[in-house]
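Reading a protein record of the kind used here takes only a little practice. The record below shows the convention in full:
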Amino acid sequence: MAQRPEQAAHQRRLAGTEIPLETDDQPGPQDRAERRADGAGRRLVGERPLPGGMIVAMHGQDSLAGRTLAVRIKEWGRDLGFNAVGITGTELGEAEARLMSWLAAGCHGEMDYMAAHGARRARPAELVPGTVSVIAARIDYLPHAADAAENLADRRRAYLSRYALGRDYHKVLRARLVRLAERIAAAVGPFAYRVFTDSAPVLEVELAARSGIGWRGKHTLLLSREAGSWFFLGEIYAALPLPADAPQDDHCGTCAACIEACPTGAIVAPYRLDARRCISYLTIELKGSIPAELRPLIGNRVYGCDDCQLCCPWNRFAQPTWEADFAVRHGLDRATLVELFGWSEEDFKSRLAGSPIHRIGYERWLRNIAVGLGNAPNSAAVVRALVARRDDRSPLVREHVRWALARHGERR
């Protein structure tokens, strides 16, 4: 996501809020299957309950054995491909107060699942009974791709958030988190745990910041001196007492580059984002019409937005990843709006299967591209592409096509 609202957030996904939002984009949304599983009271992959729900009482958090285990967990995490691993406790009282204030202000927009879980997000032991420690992990994803700034500057092209150019990160992180938990269990014996990555009501950025693997930036994403913000986050809720790591200091200083760069003014104050104005929310989470007054500001961003990350000075230290799953697929880093608008529904499903983009569905995909075409330089190819879909079977698509044609002076 895992941001955006936050993902991010994913990170990267929606640029998170004052509290991270579990969305597809840097901050992205919860996996639909996981939402159904939560609603039905079933366990997510990675949970291993103990008989009778007992908590493993191996040793105290501050014991030598506990400290040694914490060091080994980080080593095992690096061996599995995580770029950083940290540990924190379950007390999130201050974060809970900020979350409730943010929800009360309506900044979550139509993301009703945010309000539905309420304070539960800030109470790990309530979400997963028996949890006494949270292991937070980071994996870098910046792909080897066409220059983002050039893509944004060429309004004929479609801009897709960097995290979504490859395969869906959920399965990659989840599988590695389970392997890490199983490695721990092999060393200390069975213990109850549950893994998360941009799924269920989890305050990912808050937990990661408290675990010491980064600090929350003014755009609400987690920042690292070594990797900027181009990474995904995942967690293991564990019924295992472990010593907590110390949080990092804030290194944003007086910089306000992310606030000034946001195309829609969604970062309404340092460390606070109004999802209703965030392009990641508008192109991923919002199911209906994109507000007309915000459409011109979206430009050619058809899936998510990275502007607050692209301008961040800390991201100059980020290194492209060699993770095969995060490599660019189907030339999405160079594709034109006209080219993508011509995809059939079968093209969309086959080419984006296993991609985070697949979750928004074909209808919203066309809606977003129609907005991009409305903001593109006027050309015969752009008008032809729009005219070809002005009688689309979807009222949502037709509405945005009509708006785009009006921008080019073409009316039926």
